[in-house]
Amino acid sequence: MLGIPVIYSGTYKPTGSKHRARAAPDPPPLFDDTSGGYSSQPGGYPAPGADVAFNVNHLIGDPMANMAMAYGSSIASHGKDMVHKELHRFVSVNKLKYFFAVDTAYVAKKLGLLVFPYTHQHWEVQYSRDVPLPPRQDLNAPDLYIPTMAFITYVLLAGMALGIQKRFSPEVLGLCASTALVWVVMEVLALLLGVYLATVRSDLSTFHLLAYSGYKYVGVILSVLTGLLFGSDGYYVALAWTSSALMYFIVRSLRTAALGPDSMGGPAPRQRLQLYLTLGAAAFQPLMIYWLTFHLVR
Question: Residue ranges of region Disordered (predicted)?
Answer without folding.
Answer: 14-38
